[in-house]
Amino acid sequence: MTPTEPSARPIHLEDLVALPLTFGLTVSHGGDQVAFYGNATGRFELYALDLRTRERRPLSDGQVARSPNAGFVWGWGDRALYFSRDRDGDERQALFELEVGPGTVRALDHAPQSMDYVNDTHPDGRGLLVSSTRGGQMNVYAYDLSREGEAAWTALTAFEQGAHEPRYSPDGTRVLLSANESADLKNLDGYVVDADGGGLRRVLRVQEGSRDSLGHWHPDGARVAVTSDVGGQGRAGVLNVDTGDLRWLTPPGAAFGEEALEFSPDGRWLAVLRNVDSTLTPVLYGIEDGAEDGGARELRLPPGVSHGAQFALGGSHLLLGRSTSAARADVLLYDLRTDTAEVLLPAEYGAIDPGVFVEAEYVHYPTTDGLHVPALLYRPRNTPSGAQLPALVHVHGGPTWQFFRNFDEITQFLVSRGYVVLCPNVRGSTGSGVAWRDANLRDWGGRDLQDVAAGAEYLRTLPEVDPARLGVFGGSYGGYLSYLAPVKYPELFRVSVPIVGISDLHALHADNSRDMPQLAQYFRSMMGDPVQDAELWRDRSALTHAARLKAHMFMMHGANDPRCPVGQARGFRDALVALGRREGEDFEYAEFDDQGHGASDVEGRTRSYRLLADYLERRL
């Protein structure tokens, strides 16, 4: 649906959150079906859509997680799906098999404290590739579907720093993956291992310290898709793992980054995702030397952000989601033969006039060191002349992530209530090259926080913004900076709302080392060693500076969060109480017993959005 002219009708929270969500689109091996998570009934279930008949049918009936946070794969023959499910957001993912025909669900073997994520199925249909923490660090395991208990599991890797994104070769004899054995914790290399765990060898290292990963096998079983950041931007290419021949597809010195996705079934094309100015667009590269249709093939898509891209229907089509900052995501089926796109699953708007949603402005504002921060700026519609509106800096998670020009539900809701919202891609964000992404290494709460403060100063320059009514909020890493901003810049913000945030770096590392070792490794790659860098960690922990807090703060956290454990919020709350601050008057606190690191279900989002909006109305 195309947004209409501006409407005076407000966005009601219940109407917005009730709009159906669709995510996790996964094309079947046969290419004629797509499965996805959807909540059209009010609860998330797995669905399948026949791409030829357009028949849509539910596959699950209450067996998937209330708030799914793990993917799934099709079994070979497309007769089953394999998915992971946790309990109330605790991320102790357990594996399940869902038979597509009868809809029966079978639990597979699971160690209670393990996190098991299914990555691929063996071509013979008898086994799975699983990323699991059952041995401590996240590593790769083969799971034999014909066996039970511990006998079903075979460890294929034992990397101290973990392994990522394994995938079987077309004949099932080899597995590609990405891992790091270098002392440089930022480094990532590509490996191939035999399907029984033998013959492990490194096949890709463009340069030590760069992030070089393997992504998808070519149908010939020798070539794989690669992505490397060695040139300063993400760059896609094709590697022959037998000969070592590497061919780059992304032009050298390109002003954009690209990530390799997958090969077409006939091996003729490699689909990549191009990142330009907070947009993502699929591009196809012809990969055969001397082919007349070689080089980049850009698709005729409307402006916006693509959510992945997968070949379907024998490779004649691409399946993708596409949205803009003012329009919810449609699921498109793009015909590569005619360069036309069909809306397969149109976005729904229910009782909401889509004309109320606002387009984001792509801006750059000045920060320290003579640099400028790319950001998305949302302004309320029809603001009266001379009005002075409250404004918010919304900080994203990650930090190796970014805000895109796609539909942002919470931002649209806040803008409809009269807030100007700035979404900056501060230093540490992706999308602006390696130097920008790595600019906060061993500097969390340093230059990235300066960019947040500069964002607040930028908002003050806007004529419709009340310079005395500024707030900051964000989740996860955004919650970390939302704890730190008001204690490092105590005069700048009136309110701060850290959501599932971080206030104590040493406590975070200790908890992650015990419960999520893959995140502890990631954290060390970002901020160094807990002993050698102890003073830095203390300085960049908001808990150290709690006495400097002048802004009013509202902390929200899920009690089952394993990524940023609830002790991060409880510890800061207790520090404020010890300083004589009174809960309910000087600060506010909400903890959710049925939630982990955020929630995607209707009930959880409604509760969080309402609490946030009510708090801002009272305090900002």
UniProtKB/TrEMBL annotation:
InterPro entries according to UniProt: 6-blade_b-propeller_TolB-like, AB_hydrolase_fold, Peptidase_S9_cat, Peptidase_S9A
Annotated Pfam families: Peptidase_S9 (PF00326)
Keyword set, alphabetical order: Hydrolase
Gene Ontology molecular function terms on file: hydrolase activity
Record flagged with keyword Ribosomal protein: no
Keyword Hydrolase included in the entry's annotation: yes
Domain of life: Bacteria
Domain Peptidase S9 prolyl oligopeptidase catalytic: 406-618
Protein name: Alpha/beta fold hydrolase
